[in-house]
Design goal:
Number of strands: 7
Distance between the termini: 46 Å
Radius of gyration: 16 Å
Strand content: 25-35%
Number of helices: 4
Largest sheet: 7 strands, mixed
Strand order of the largest sheet: 1-2-3-4-5-7-6
Helix content: 25-40%
Order of helices and strands: EHHEEEHEHEE
Length: 172
């Protein structure tokens, strides 16, 4: 029996800059979106507290105070996804914690969040955006390549099980 494809349903949504009062909701979205990956990789609070599946509101507040801007995607009065962007310097921004609630994935919401963040980066005259993904995640790498990102290097980080592929989008 062939696998069924999830039907893509168009919905009206808006993307806005997240505020301090959104952090509990953002943390819940991020934890939910990364829960399956964490389970497959054997990640827990005890062995990797910095993994997005262990996201806490207090950590998001610290990141926001450091300058990370989060965008939240809402439809029908409910939040379905988010993405963070940190300006590393005058020409480089870093995307982080792209998350869409699992039942809403594969509906174009992640792409809308990435495209919105690219537009925001252009407004800030950033030259490039970078995101790190698990080196073994070929499907995610292919998805980012379809959005215009290029893989340019791999790095090993002590807090991650496998190397991270750094992908870059050139904004200008």
């Amino acid at each position: 029996m062939p696998a069924r494809k999830k039907q893509i349903i168009k919905m009206e949504f808006k993307i806005r800059k997240a505020e301090g009062h959104d952090v509990e909701q953002l943390a819940a979205i991020i934890r939910s979106a990364f829960e399956d990956a964490a389970w497959h990789l054997g990640i827990s609070q005890q062995n990797n507290s910095s993994h997005p599946s262990n996201c806490r509101a207090d950590r998001l507040i610290q990141e926001m105070n450091r300058g990370v801007v989060y965008y939240i995607l809402e439809a029908e009065g409910q939040a379905f996804g988010c993405i963070g962007m940190e300006m590393i310097n005058d020409e480089l921004g870093r995307l982080d914690k792209l998350a869409v609630l699992p039942p809403e994935q594969r509906r174009g919401l992640g792409q809308a969040l990435v495209e919105h963040t690219i537009a925001e980066a252009r407004k800030k005259n950033l030259f490039r955006l970078q995101i790190g993904i698990g080196d073994e995640d070929d499907q995610l790498r292919d998805w980012f390549e379809k959005l215009g990102f290029e893989e340019n290097e791999q790095k090993a980080f002590s807090q991650f099980v496998s190397p991270v592929s750094l992908m870059t989008y050139y904004c200008l």
